[in-house]
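tool_log.txt
---
The assistant was asked to compare two proteins side by side. It first ran the structure predictor on the initial sequence, then on the second. Raw inputs and outputs are pasted verbatim so the downstream comparison step can read them without reformatting.
(1)
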Amino acid sequence: MIKNNVKRFRQIGMIEGYSFLILLFIAMPIKYILGYPIAVKIVGMTHGILFIVFCLLLAKAWYDARWSFKESTLFFVASLVPFGTFFTDKKIKVYE
């Protein structure tokens, strides 16, 4: 059970990380350079939903895997930084 929750958290972390990069490096330039704001609306909404799921799964994995507050905070803060979830992926993989 613990492995499943950590595995799900790791998977959503990767998906959320990619959606953040798509938002920043594809949708935002399309909006501001080409003038199509719909790209940010679609990708932004998708990323927002993924981020909420990420936070919920982080709380569940934190509880089940008995991570320290410091580790869980690191995982959360890393999700706010571009490429951050990819750096913490190796640390999360240890708990699988």
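(2)
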Amino acid sequence: MTENEIGKIVVDCAVKLHMELGPGLLESVYEVLLAHRLEKRGLKVERQVHISIEYDGIRFDEGFRADLIVEGKVLLELKSVEQTTKVHKKQVLTYLKLTDIKLGYLLNFGESLMKDGIHRILNGILE
């Protein structure tokens, strides 16, 4: 399965979840439920994945955590805020670079309409 095929399933599941529950829940609730939906669709999902960083001979294993990584190919960062900012997108881009994953999504379940909370981010490209 390609990154784009996984991405379509992710977006579909996120939109349906948001339609059913709406905004306003904790990020952790959306994380658990989105992971469950993706697994029901037959995808392998890892939650709270440690992302290591190496700098000047020092390795930090506990520096960052990705909310979800799907099939080892697509990274998901979930938010439940009124509005995301540029720093949220930069966070996803940094995670993509550190993991060498090509595709990531910033999903903000705090938006009134989920379509306004979906941001697709490619490794090396910040839209």
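---
observation on (2): The longest strand covers residues 58-70. The chain has a mean pLDDT of 93.
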